[in-house]
Fold:
Amino acid sequence: MNRIRLQDRIDAQRLEREALGRRRNRRTVGRRDGVGCEVEGRWLLDFCGNDYLGMAQHFAVVDALQDSAARHGAGGVASHLVCGHHAAHEALERELADWLEVPAALVFGSGYVANLAVVQALLGDGDVCVQDKLDHASLIDAARLAGCRLRRYPHADAEGAIRQLRAHPEGAAMIATDGVFSMDGDLAPLRQLALVARAQNAMLYVDDAHGVGVLGPEGRGSVAAARLGVAEVPLQLATFGKALGSHGAAVCGDAAFVRHLAETARPYIYTTAMPAAQAAATLAAMRLARREQWRRDKLQESIAHFRAGAQRRGLPLLPSETPIQPLLVGDDRAALAMARALEARGFWVAAIRPPTVPEGTARLRITLGAGHDRLQIDALLQALDEARGQLQAQPATAPA
Ligand SMILES: *Cc1c(COP(=O)(O)O)cnc(C)c1O
Structure:
């Protein structure tokens, strides 16, 4: 017998990650106060979270959570199809559908799971799922779980998508794309993809985790911003953990598709429902996000201010008009060293390295939110400038 010991394998893999400067470790947040957070005893300004509209600690959102938990408890009790489906989920689904101008919505415990559900419930052996090269990991995993073919096209290349679909004329087809790319901040060419989908009889599915709440009229997201609707995009994903400052997700769109997911998607059926209190908090956040345009306006001003400042300083930002503002570094260790230098100056920015991003494109993923003010952004720009100077003075060669 030639059995591999798993202990040996994971040790070897850890050493390899170490050698490449790709160890990953968690940091522990003790307290949060808006964009400030205490991390292992020090206060840092958070420029890496996804609370784009400043909702996570909004008193109305926290109030809704507490009030609902007091009446309905902290747990989810059971799956939706047993006895976990609560009036709070119903209300959230109804208002979400109204906000996004679609017929129906279905709440999930997380966006990751929702993506698994969509592809698994709709595609199988003999079908094809065509995806952007930079799609979120959950979409890739979803196609793997579904057992369909997965074909990827070059980033934002609708021509590439049509080539992939033409090469697989049999079976059902889906084009799945992020609306806003999570590590790059740029937008998918949704109008072109909608044309491709129509010409090829494919379904277009948009994961709008970073667009909902931020883009388009009333913050309805990437699909609405592209002036598309349920006719062109039968299903889209809204997540609650980003601009809505809560947790969970919903698949929104065509009523027949949504019903099919509710009855057949294994990642929907075989898991405990989101707690009612979480749904109540999300509903409160959704109402605020919809109504309070000033949050989006302030965010847009901050984005413009940050980009102008970065350009003056010659900082190499990727082309993005969303709250995700990546600064390309390239080398993994250099990205880590920059993040450390920023932390020493009181700023928390994430160094994103492969395999989350392609080889040679390690970056600082800077995120802006309605909670940041101009002084904080100016201070970050100054710190980025200094961190870059420090890096150029002493290139990072020591192992991470
Ligand atoms: C965050 C994210 C998800 C996963 O959503 P969760 O609710 O955090 O599980 C899916 N897709 C994209 C593009 C994301 O950025």
